[in-house]
């Protein structure tokens, strides 16, 4: 499709608006989000997929043997020679250990294959010993990360309520030396477990089966209508936690923010709730010390609310306020995000937030219309007017899930694509995302590697990872197989982008077609001005020559064209 200058300008004016931040679509929200339609559809898709995996034996984790140290060589870590399902794609990351869920799960049940979910780590401040809490279908496993890169299974805490199909979800967050554990199971509430209990376990007596009656420091269920939550969020500095994703969403605080005090972990007390923007799927809460002087010192929560990034002032838990609600082009299920540094605010410079949408790849929406995951970059230097300044596309088809900032790196757990590490140090100077690069990864799901685009848009693979250990070990919890321990071998700086004469670039500058270069230069001049998300604006000749990851490949090709002469 050839665009004349008038048509091109009209299209790109529209796209430029769509590709940035947008106001919340109230009518769409009422139909799809406030009602819970999209969330229930997404959860049903996941449960159906996992039950189908179980039916054909893919959730039988006992079939996966213990794996030892395996070096990443020429892009692969071949843990078992000549075994395709133990040959993992990798870059700058070695495998140290693997233990299946069957080994880590409760010794008293063999229910539903013992699948995996969330995870979080704790380091004993006195000894430096490193520990993981690994979410599973029937509870949580407690693991020590040994200095040599081995995992030691120390114990298991069962779910607080009987298991059912919502038991797939266990989410874990830290508060000092405690771990808070929530679940989508009705009646589960929030378990509060003291991690110092692990310090005196004799390895010869491990794993220990902990008891909800005897071994919990505390338990919170007071204001949760069904005792069910999707996640739990902690502001350690302010000594409180928040249950989010609470059900049902048509009562009380509409599935929003449910605050409770951790001043005394043995007696968590409800502090209030906020349902002004309805259901909150995940959040991050911090004492704000950033450049927006109006909110300096206030207690701020960044909420990921299905179709918006919603920012709250929660300084008064009984009367919290919405500062802003901002949507974006392609919003399908706003899932999770993280600020660039939880201590960044003292620098008093523009600040950044990285966010994913979990359903845009599945729905082929917005920038993810080609099925490649998208990470959105937000400028949050103004809490009242956050700006969606840029994004970056991933190299492998799939779904992005959870991400956390570790220094100048962004560590993501992306289902079948595994754990991925991005260098985001360039964002302050180039917030478009064009200079972000992937410097390491470990693909824990070889089953989909041979598919077009290198992966599948499905809910298989890794759910979570934890990368904050001083030792450098990264714990990766997967849904089907078990727990992996990996470590980066080196930290590479992003290399200058080079121009490779592939079919995509050749199509844009084809000398055999009169006027093609000039047409491409005109197109690219507009295309590279803003964050373009709409695949349909790409000329047919370019789309055909760049059939996978279209937006990223066309952007790269555009940057390699010669500058037009006057």
| CATH class term of the largest domain | Mainly Beta
CATH architecture of the largest domain: 7 Propeller
Q: Which structural class best describes the helix and strand composition? A: alpha+beta
Mean pLDDT: 91
Report helical residue fraction.
10-25%
**Spatial separation of the terminal alpha carbons:** 24 Å
- CATH topology heading of the largest domain: Methylamine Dehydrogenase, Chain H
Q: Can you count the helices?
A: 9
Low-confidence stretches: 1-19
In terms of DSSP E residues, the strand content is 25-35%
Radius of gyration: 24 Å
Biggest β-sheet description: 6 strands, antiparallel
- Count of DSSP strands: 32
CATH homologous superfamily descriptor of the largest domain: YVTN repeat-like/Quinoprotein amine dehydrogenase
In total, the number of domains comes to: 2
Q: Estimate the global geometry from the Cα principal axes.
A: globular
Q: For the largest sheet, list the strands in their spatial order.
A: 2-3-29-28-27-26
GO cellular component, one term: extracellular region
InterPro entries: Choice_anch_B, WD40_repeat_dom_sf
Give a concise summary.
15% of the residues lie in helices and 32% in strands.
Could you describe the 3D structure shown?
With 566 residues, the chain is an alpha+beta fold. It folds into two domains: 5-21 and 499-559, no CATH class; 34-488, Methylamine Dehydrogenase, Chain H (7 Propeller), CATH 2.130.10. The chain is 15% helix and 32% strand. It contains nine helices and 32 strands. The protein has a six-stranded antiparallel sheet, with no helix packed on it. It has a five-stranded antiparallel sheet with strand order 1-21-20-19-18, with no helix packed on it. Strand 30 and strand 31 form a beta hairpin. Helix 1 runs parallel beside helix 7. The protein starts with a helix and ends in a 7-residue tail after the last helix. Residues 1-19 have low confidence and may be disordered.
């Amino acid at each position: 499709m050839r665009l004349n200058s008038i048509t091109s300008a009209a299209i790109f004016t529209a796209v430029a608006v769509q590709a940035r931040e947008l106001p919340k679509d109230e009518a769409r929200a009422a139909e799809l989000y406030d009602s819970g339609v999209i969330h229930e559809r997404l959860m049903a898709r996941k449960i159906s997929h996992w039950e189908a995996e179980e039916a054909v034996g893919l959730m039988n984790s006992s079939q996966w043997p213990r794996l030892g140290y395996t070096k990443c060589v020429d892009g692969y870590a071949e843990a078992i020679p000549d075994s395709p399902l133990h040959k993992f794609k990798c870059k700058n990351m070695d495998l140290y250990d693997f233990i299946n869920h069957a080994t880590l799960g409760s010794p008293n049940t063999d229910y539903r294959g013992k699948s995996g979910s969330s995870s979080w780590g704790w380091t004993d401040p006195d000894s430096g010993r490193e520990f993981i809490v690994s979410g599973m279908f029937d509870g949580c496993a407690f693991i020590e990360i040994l200095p040599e890169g081995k995992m030691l299974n120390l114990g298991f805490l069962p779910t607080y309520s009987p298991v059912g199909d919502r038991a797939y979800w266990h989410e874990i967050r830290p508060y000092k030396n405690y771990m808070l554990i929530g679940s989508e199971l009705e009646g589960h509430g929030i378990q509060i477990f003291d991690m110092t209990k692990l310090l005196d376990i004799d390895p010869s007596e491990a794993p220990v089966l902990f008891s909800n009656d005897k071994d919990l420091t505390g338990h919170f269920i007071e204001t949760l209508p069904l005792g069910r939550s999707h996640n739990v969020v902690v502001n350690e500095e302010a000594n409180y936690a928040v249950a989010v994703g609470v059900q049902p969403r048509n009562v009380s605080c509409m599935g929003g923010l449910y605050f409770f005090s951790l001043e005394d972990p043995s007696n968590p007390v409800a502090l209030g709730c906020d349902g002004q923007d309805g259901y909150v799927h995940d959040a991050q809460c911090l004492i704000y010390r950033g450049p927006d002087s109006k909110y300096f010192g206030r207690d701020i929560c960044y909420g990921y609310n299905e179709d918006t990034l919603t920012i709250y002032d929660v300084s008064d838990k009984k009367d919290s306020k919405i500062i802003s609600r901002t949507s974006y082009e392609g919003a399908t299920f706003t899932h999770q995000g993280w600020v660039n540094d939880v201590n960044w605010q003292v620098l008093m410079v523009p600040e950044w937030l990285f966010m994913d949408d979990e359903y845009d790849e599945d729905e082929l929406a917005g920038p993810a219309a080609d099925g490649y995951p998208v990470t959105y970059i937000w400028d949050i230097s103004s809490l009242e007017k956050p700006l969606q300044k840029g994004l970056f596309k991933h190299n492998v088809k799939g779904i992005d899930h959870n991400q956390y900032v570790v220094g100048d790196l962004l560590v993501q757990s992306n289902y079948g694509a595994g754990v991925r590490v991005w260098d985001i140090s360039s964002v302050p100077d180039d917030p478009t995302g064009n200079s972000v690069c992937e410097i390491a990864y470990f693909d824990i799901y070889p089953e989909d590697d041979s598919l077009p685009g290198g992966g599948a848009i499905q809910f298989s693979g890794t759910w979570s990872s934890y990368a904050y250990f001083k030792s450098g070990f990264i714990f990766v919890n997967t849904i089907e197989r078990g727990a992996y321990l990996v470590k980066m071998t080196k930290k590479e700086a992003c290399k200058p982008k080079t121009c490779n004469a592939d079919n995509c670039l050749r199509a844009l500058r084809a000398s055999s077609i009169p006027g093609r270069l000039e047409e491409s230069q005109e197109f690219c001049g507009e295309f590279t001005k803003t964050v373009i998300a709409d695949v349909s604006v790409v000329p047919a000749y370019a789309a055909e020559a760049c059939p996978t990851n279209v937006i990223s490949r066309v952007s790269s090709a555009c940057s390699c064209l010669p500058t037009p002469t006057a």
